[in-house]
Design a protein that fits this description.
The protein is an alpha+beta fold. Strands 7-6-18-17-14-15 form a six-stranded antiparallel beta sheet, with no helix packed on it.
């Protein structure tokens, strides 16, 4: 880094110690390169103006880390976004650069899908609200469409399923029987028995989605490896056996163990 290196080295050492403890040396080295590149790029936006005064001219910074690998996105989320870790380091870097920043500087860190460069940074200035003009017609309420699940990871009987029933059961095997061979449950979304490694983490009676007042709610049926939703770069655990479950939103990635499906509507 170019400016006030001792302070910045302290920031870097703290990040390295934490990531080595959490992810090991190899992952820490890769994460450190991304961390350093982000801070250096933001620092280069500092401008020297009249009489040597230093200024950071943006009031909003949005950092988006991207990967096509869900596991890599989870690492990015833990390393950079959780507990405002990267935001704190950005603010300390700007403070080390001894520059003036706009009041109310907003820094956002997101994790999303994508390939190529592992991050991108957007800069913007706060804009004044538009002047009052003619009244704007209120938008019409959106018409809810039938939702669907699209297979992302694992092997299922189909690549996608529509959620038309009041309750949709998810698990391994089309049917579950008791000791007397009586059918006790039918799964609507079926992961193949022995399909691949991810499928082994899907319980035969894993989860269900309930359509309730136009909303889709995901419930875990006390599965062995659990159910979670990945939304806006953040994992949300679905409590086992809780009938209320988690309300789904378009774009949610649902993990049944390590198998994954995307909720679309």
């Amino acid at each position: 880094m170019s400016l006030f290196s001792e302070i910045e080295k302290t920031i870097e050492r703290g990040f390295r110690r934490w990531t080595e403890k959490m992810f090991g040396t190899a992952q820490s080295d890769e994460l450190l390169l991304v961390h350093r590149a982000i801070l250096e790029q933001i620092e280069r936006k500092v401008q020297t103006v009249i009489r040597g005064k230093r200024l950071f001219p943006y009031s909003r910074v949005v950092v988006t880390l991207r990967s096509d690998d869900p596991d890599r996105r989870a690492v990015y989320q833990a390393a950079f976004a959780q507990e405002g870790r990267l935001e704190k380091d950005i603010r300390e870097t700007l403070e080390a650069a001894r520059c003036e920043v706009p009041r109310g500087l907003a820094i956002e860190v997101h994790v999303g899908e994508g390939e190529g460069k592992p991050y991108e940074i957007e800069y913007s200035m706060a804009e004044p609200p538009p002047a009052a003009t003619e009244p704007v017609e209120a938008p019409k309420p959106a018409v809810k469409t039938v939702a669907r699940l699209v297979l992302v990871r694992g092997k299922a009987a189909r690549d996608e399923y529509t959620l038309e029933k009041p309750r949709t059961n998810i698990g391994r095997l089309p049917e579950l029987t008791d000791a007397e061979q009586r059918v006790v449950r039918r799964n609507d979304v079926v992961f193949e028995e022995g399909g691949d490694e991810a499928n082994t983490t899907v319980s035969r009676r894993h989860a269900h989605i309930r359509l309730e007042d136009g909303d889709y709610r995901l419930c875990d049926d006390e599965s062995e490896f659990g159910t979670r939703v990945f939304r806006d770069g953040r994992p949300i655990e679905v409590p086992p056996g809780n009938r209320r479950g988690e309300k789904l939103r378009p774009g949610d990635e649902i993990y049944f163990g390590r198998a994954c499906m995307r909720f679309e509507q």
